[in-house]
Amino acid sequence: MQTCDWLEAAKRLAGGEVGVVPTDTLYGIVGSALKPAAVERVYELRRRELDKPMIVLIAGWTDFERLQIEIPARTQELLNKVWPGPVSVIVAVASPALAYLHRGTNSLAFRMPNHPELRELLERVGPVVAPSANVAGEKPSETVEDARAYFGDEIFYVEGGKLSGSPSALVDARPDPMRVLRPAPGFRL
In angstroms, rounded to a whole number, what is the distance separating the alpha carbons of residues 116 and 9? Predict the structure, then answer.
């Protein structure tokens, strides 16, 4: 198994590789959201439906600017209360240049994790796609060994011990009022 530290993971992601890292909720399989080939590789490894967008993890507000995504003021107010943390928010994405991410839905879910090493990695690499580390429809990985059973030795892994957190809350920020699509413990709109 190719295990590495956070700094090596950042270098590999910047080079277009895909890997598994611990987040503040579950293990995620990650690839640079700025590299279409890395995004496609995550779809392939997860056997994910090609028309279903993946969550994008960001380090901060500047990542929205980097992706040329405008966040409405009411959504910013919510995010200032819940980020960093386990809340994912779906926003409108108008740019055709991001079609490889939004898959024709013209929307994406973003999350700013509350995990210091992961946030540092995101600051170095930029946004990453980060669905849970499992094959679509299977149980999310609680350990690096679980993830390796799904994805083998073709990718890298960052060890983070056993993680058995809940998936993030999911809020659709496009309608007014916003809607909670997936509740999570301790989260209310």
Answer: 14
CB atoms within 10 A of CB 102: 19
Query: Torsion over CA of 118, 127, 51 and 108, rounded to 10 degrees?
Result: 100
Question: Dihedral, CA atoms, 19, 41, 154, 115, nearest 10 degrees?
Answer: 10
DSSP 132: B
Where do the domains of the chain lie, and which CATH numbers do they carry?
2-182 (3.90.870.10)
- Cβ atoms of 19 and 153 within 8 Å: the answer is no
> Residue 114's Cα: distance from chain center in Å?
12
CA 24, 26, 29, 35 torsion-angle sign = negative
pLDDT at 138: 95
| Average pLDDT, integer, range 124-132 | 97
Euclidean distance between the first and final Cα of the chain, in Å?
41
Q: DSSP label at 138?
A: S
pTM: 0.95
CA distance 74 to 117: 29
Q: What are the φ and ψ backbone dihedral angles of 147, each rounded to 5 degrees?
A: -65, -40
C-alpha dihedral (96, 101, 106, 108), degrees to nearest 10: -140
Token code pair at residue 162: 């056993």
